[in-house]
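During the no-cost extension, the postdoctoral fellow (Dr. R.K.) reprocessed legacy sequence entries with the updated structure-token encoder. One reprocessed record is reproduced below for audit purposes.
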Amino acid sequence: MSTQIYTIPPSKELERIAKSFFVMEHTESDLQEKYLLPDGLPSFFHLSVSEDIHAHFLEVEEKFVMKSGLYVGYANTLMKFTHKEMKIIGVSVFPIYMSILLGSSLSELMNKFIPVGTVIKNNMELDILQNASPSDPEELIQLIERFIIGRIRQNPVKEEILDIYKLIIKSKGNEIRLDDLTNKTGYSARHINNLFQKHLGMAPKQLIKLARFNYGLKLIGELNKDKNLTQIAIELGYYDQAHFIKDFKSVCGKTPGELLAEKDDFHKNFNLY
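Re-encoded structure tokens follow.
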């Protein structure tokens, strides 16, 4: 049996905060190896495993061993993980809100998996989540949603960083630069960089590149006889296909063609767009 995964849209109250909930399950004892591409979205998840999961962020050589528990994770590079029997129930959160949820800078989370209890302490709702059973995904999702909404209500998002984030996501990373952000917001480049490092864990240029990469992934997934990679490259604002392929590979270590040739399309379940 292959790994089963499905996504669930967030409630109306949570849709500005999270992209989707996800449930991932593998019920057999065979060793599996999976790859995740960087989608620019940190995750908050409940993990139940028969044996430890080994995660490896390839470009930065960060390695983590995860037991059953509650975790947060965030990546801007390709990640490989190996597992046997497991069940993961979690949510992909827009990064601005994850920094509020954790009460700390996302730069400390980049390319890591961290037990939530080491970041958020003495929280009764978190204790309930830690001890919740994964047997009922719907109930666990409701607990996660209630926890997130409660945390966000206590700590409202800063509108200045939210506006800049929306500009980049709406642009899909195409034809937008740091100069454009300073002109549209009136903030200095230094101020914007500081905001991004604190609230998104990366520089504006990196988010722009990730947005462009993820929109490219979406377009590649929609390839048909009427559209080829050259047309996708042009739509993304590249001068030619070669520059598109080079940029794409710099993010995930694979060319679009190599990705299309893979039988395992697990990565398609997680995308910014």
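The mean pLDDT is 90. The chain has two domains: 4-154, 159-269. The remaining legacy entries will be reprocessed before the final report is submitted.
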